């Protein structure tokens, strides 16, 4: 991944880290994410986006977002919650509804005319 990242350039590469956010007695925990982020950093990879898989139908809490962004060197806008959907084909629609396309598109990509619509 790291070699591919260097070969295509940082403007053409986005690393999305998908992590589980368990809910223990009404509190979202960040413990499962910390070792995986540490491993990624050890490989020289920093995630551009963090997708937090939520098992309960609640939004991602602001405190959880800030903790995950602090551990990953990502902005809190780059941390988002994803809940279960009926089909894997609904995931792109969910990501568009979460306005993920606005977060990931850089100025250079927008100038080239690339965006979420090409999916």
Write up what this structure looks like.
The chain has helices at 2-8, 33-42, 62-72, 91-97, 100-104, 107-112, and strands at 16-21, 23-24, 27-28, 49-54, 79-83. The protein has 119 residues and is an alpha/beta fold. A three-stranded parallel sheet has the order 1-4-5, covered by helices on one side. The protein starts with a helix and ends in a 7-residue tail after the last helix. The mean pLDDT is 80.
Write the layout of secondary structure elements.
Layout: H1 2-8, E1 16-21, E2 23-24, E3 27-28, H2 33-42, E4 49-54, H3 62-72, E5 79-83, H4 91-97, H5 100-104, H6 107-112
Parallel strand pairs: 1-4, 4-5
Antiparallel strand pairs: 2-3
- What share of residues are in beta strands? 15-25%
Helix and strand run = HEEEHEHEHHH
Subunit arrangement of the protein: single chain
The coarse silhouette is: globular
- Alpha-carbon distance between the two ends: 22 Å
What strand order characterises the main sheet?
1-4-5
Average pLDDT reading: 80
Low-confidence stretches: none
User: Biggest sheet, open or closed, and with what strands and sense?
Assistant: 3 strands, parallel
Percentage of residues assigned to helices? 25-40%
Class by helix and strand content?
alpha/beta
Q: What's the alpha carbon Rg, rounded to whole Å?
A: 15 Å
Number of strands: 5
Q: What is the count of helical runs? A: 6
């Amino acid at each position: 991944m790291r070699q591919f990242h260097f070969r295509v350039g940082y403007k053409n590469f986005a690393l999305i880290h998908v992590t589980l956010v368990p809910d223990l007695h009404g509190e979202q925990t960040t413990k499962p994410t910390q070792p995986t982020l540490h491993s990624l950093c050890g490989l020289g990879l920093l995630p551009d986006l963090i997708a937090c898989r939520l098992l309960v139908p609640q939004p991602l809490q602001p405190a959880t977002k800030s903790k995950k962004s602090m551990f990953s060197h990502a902005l809190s806008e780059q941390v988002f919650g994803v809940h279960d959907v009926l089909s894997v084909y609904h995931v792109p629609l969910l990501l568009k509804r979460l306005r993920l396309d606005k977060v990931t598109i850089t100025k250079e990509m927008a100038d080239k005319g690339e965006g979420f619509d090409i999916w």
